[in-house]
Amino acid sequence: MEQVRLREAAELLGISYQTLKLWIYQEKIQSVKTAGGHHRIPRSEIDRLSGARTLAALKPKTSTGLNEISGRNKLLGIITSVRYSGLLAQVTIDVCGQSVTSIITSDACRELQLKKGVAAYALVKATEVMLIRA
Whole-prediction pTM value? Predict the structure, then answer.
């Protein structure tokens, strides 16, 4: 079974090294210790958390121009629900077990053909990020 170093695992999961260490201590992710006491993450854990198998099958085969966008917070996930209400649509995406919800116009939602089970990116741009201790 392939085991991945923490920095590479964090990059593959799209999280920081510190977050990955926290997840290990909170037992949200399994790790294996080497003889030298270093943590390694089994590839199966990365697949489980990233949904790599599902996302790889659903990911668009053509370039969407994401590298041309200056925002760096590009979160790939699977749409879990779409709710229309008049001119607006509420779209919820599962990103590694976390829900991200966006309100967009109904026209844009239809144009993009967004529906449950489709892979989509959430691009986050914010001037502030508020935190609360878990």
Answer: 0.51
